[in-house]
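# step 3/5: fold
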Amino acid sequence: MALPGAAPPPLTVLMSVRAALARAARRPPLPAAAALRLQLSAGPAPAARRRFRLELRHDGAAGGAPIAEYDLKDVVYKVQGPRSHELLVLGAWDEPLLLSFEEEREAQKWWTIVSSSLREVQKAFESALAAEALPPPAGANPNPGDQGAEEALTTELREKEDLALHLARAIEFGDEEEASCCAVALARHQAALSILLRDSAYPPEHIRMKVGVEDATSSASITLLVRAHTTIAALKEQVRSGVGSGNAGGSRWGGGQLRAAPVQVFREYGFHPRVQRWIIGQCLCLDERSVFSYGIRRDGDPAFLYLLSARAAELSPQRLEEDQAQLRLHCPLPGAGAAAGTGCGNEAGGKMDIGDISRCLDSLQLGDTLGAQAKPPSPSPPSPEQPGWPCPQCTFINKPTRPGCEMCSGARPEDYVVPRAHRPDERERRRLQREQEGMRQYQQALEAERLQNLEQLLQLEQEVLVPNREALECLICFQRVPPGQGVLLRECLHSFCRECLRQVITFSEEPTVACPYRDDAYACSSHLQEREIRALVSPDEYRRFLERSLVLAERRSHNSFHCRTPDCRGWCIYEDSVNEFRCPVCQALNCLLCKAIHEGRNCRQYQDDLELRARNDAAARQTSAMLQGPGDTSGGCRCNVNGHKCHPQCQNCH
């Protein structure tokens, strides 16, 4: 017995798990990707019940400091994906927290503990309501205060029901204002709702859904009769079909008759909902979604049911016994049904043969992991091996010619070889034809793209300048250049603005203009093309650029000779066997031996005349002295002094 004033007994931690926030939250204020630790605890409560608390703590560097603690009865917890969960605390938070787990197995284990605790809390709440609804015992004096509380609760429930009905009616008729008012009022009451579409919103036709059932080592196929509004949870618990389309060995399940009465999968086949994983359209299905939302539209649409082992699904013997006991309360077992005429039979009875399914999926063997209570499977001949290759990721057995997994899109093993004796069936041939047609269309599209690129290249080749297609930053002036205002150089594909390139050309001292791109580790060695230079500068600037180029070319040529006519720009590159040069600019005939113009006279006559004039002409004396002896020192270069030129390759002094 607890003493007065003693502290309440400590809570027992049921599970603690790490998670991260997928998005930032305002209440509690937490940033995106914040590392959290979720802790679920339980402790004793009055009336032999347990109270559950959910606590949020910091994880990692924060040292596990607590953030907040909530009663589990105020928590709404949903599964959004294999590793994504949603947590909402009614009355405390405006929007839910989106949690992300590192491992899918850890997230599934956490959801198992939380969901079982939520069920226990819900059962305790329903028991409390039922106890309040019981009439008082005979002879007891009713308390006027209790009667007032009961009337208030009845009035509140009636008001919530009316609001829920008004909300459904407003949504159905498209009254947004009325629907908003009803939703706000229900939120103020913190009413727990379950909003689902009516069955009339879906197509009413039945759909024959082809289901491939598989476990770790074997597979089979059945056909289930479903409705468009059938949820995945309903598929796990019940289906409306008993027709099978056969397994790999050719055996047929059932008798080819569709039954309208629902047949529970757990009751008929022994597949517990925990071991079922439904995959439709390459998506791992959620229990709340309908088959119509996953693309089941018409007869023959495929679905895939993968069966986990009991150990992998964490299905304990106690849980299996509890669910089997609940199943016995609601519907008879297969053996009892058969005795009464409603159980499994052969084709004449219109029921599925559970023995065929057990033989085809005998590798599940729930009894091996659940203990000795389960009956050992009856001996049966092994089923023939299904042709194809097993996926290394999901173990689904694919057709031999399929390049990737049909379920998870995983790649086919590289060492797998299609058997030579394999003959594709009709479905496989259609798929191969579609792949060939898709490859042909891809080749056509690729060829069209190549032709389009060739046309664009030819069009750009005809243009003088290639403009920039996107906005860029000039690497010289660092200004933003809009599309079409810059220039893309053809040789190196570097881009600059037009003004910077024009200045580079104007101040270039070389006959070829190099690309101005430079950085700390690289200098571009490409050059601007002649047509690019001509288009970037004005005609006068281009003429001066050509003149500079000619002057540099004359200076750097070994056998160059400039015309002796004053102010003439003509020059040539001569060979040793050539003695005369007629200038193309002034048409004067230059003597390369005398390095002078003496038309009408030969070199001897010109030398004699030069010697005669040297007696009275100082300039002629200098020229004669330079040609005959000591050289010229008037220009300061000492050219031809003592027979040595001012430069070994001097051609331009005299």
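# step 4/5: annotate
The chain has a mean pLDDT of 75.
# step 5/5: archive (pending)
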